[in-house]
Amino acid sequence: MRYFALGLAALAFASGASAQQTQQPSATSVAVNPQAPPAAAPISPEQERTVDRLRAAALESNLAWEIVEDLVTEIGPRLAGSEAEARARDWAVNMLREQRFSNVRIEPFTIPYWDATREEASIVGPAPQPMVIAALGGSPSTPQGGLEAEVVRFADMAALEAAPEDAVRGRIVFIDERMQRTQDGSGYGAAVAKRGRCAPVAQAKGAVACLIRSVGTDPHRFAHQGGSSRQSQGASLPAAAISPADADLLARRISRGATRVRLDIQADIRENAPSGNVIAEIRGRERPDEIVLLAAHLDSWDMGQGAVDDGAGVAIVTAAAKLIRDLPRRPRRTIRILLAGAEENGVHGGAAYAEAHANETHIVGAESDFGAGPIWRFRTRFADHALPYGRAIQRQLAPLGIIPGDNAAGGGADIGAMRQAGMPVVDLSQNGLDYFDYHHTPNDTLDKIDPEALRQNVAAYAVFAYLVADSDGVFTAEP
Ligand SMILES: [Zn+2]
After folding, report:
1. Any catalytic annotation for residue 343?
2. CATH number for the segment(s) 114-269
3. How much is the pTM?
């Protein structure tokens, strides 16, 4: 995931096996009016039997594991716009056809390509020390051979913003802000701001480069990759994330006196590189033009394997849809899988999808892009009249340990443009306590995925997608 919408409340809920017995605290209360009369059951006995069947089948299925294992073994890292991302699209088309989905296709678009060919930094002087860094996506190159300057440390972005220009001019800015570990990922929303904003703010004050403490929660000597702000904000300062251990070291050296760093970033930057979205469908038996959208993204950063981000999501939504595909009767509406390209360097696939499909009727969308941890909460972003329906869906998820959430679902980066265009969304919130230990690092590898948690995810997506696709429920404001 690249962005993460902030939840209304950062909840520390014990992991979810006992949700059926758990009285939900008021801070988490689902947005159902407690005074309203109980809604007529929107789920038929036949649908309930199908849901039971889907849940049981998912909890025994290894399909999601097989999909992500194959993706990271056959393709591996898939940088947006690269030849590897193109191979991943072909892999996805073959895989989706093998699973007998309909209308499997690539929808191509082009993106600005960026890749670091060199990323090195070291503290210089009488006691030189190399640091582990990752150039931030979109960073321009330093001059050949690198640049060297004194480093000025700021505790956070606000401190940089408040600093006078003469404290910054000619220096390398270092933002030393730490990220909080949270179950719902809300720590990321707060911490990631420095990744996009350090370079433009530092540049405006005359800095020569920008270093940030990695946006992550692990203690390892890895730096976390991630996009900066070239496209959105026009920054032109070289920028890199440094590992937590090296951020500690740099802060200690600065506390002892003037500290100089040499930074060498060389980047391959090209316009109009090929990317694309991969689409597949289960056509609805009665209302094929009404779409339930299940998204994940196919590209990844390239230091790891792209297993938890977002090979897991690709596997979860595909395996869930496949279980529905295998039912004796297709649901009434169309279920569409969107495996988006080029999410990590600017959510280009999500934008391309919204542009190409704006005129279609999207009933609801969901995206799996928060790793492979178990789902613990179901959030909606529905019109008020549809909230009882949301609650009825949640009851079918409760046997999986999933509790009700609020009505402020974010939906995910690749369906963000569709959400803004009015598509209702839900979040099947995964436990992300350890997600940012691995996110965008060399440690994003297959062994971080628990097959059992993956099966629980598949069950939840299958139950949700089947219920909305087999219904005539409308989750936007009534027409
Ligand atoms: Zn992702």
Report:
1. yes
2. 3.50.30.30
3. 0.90
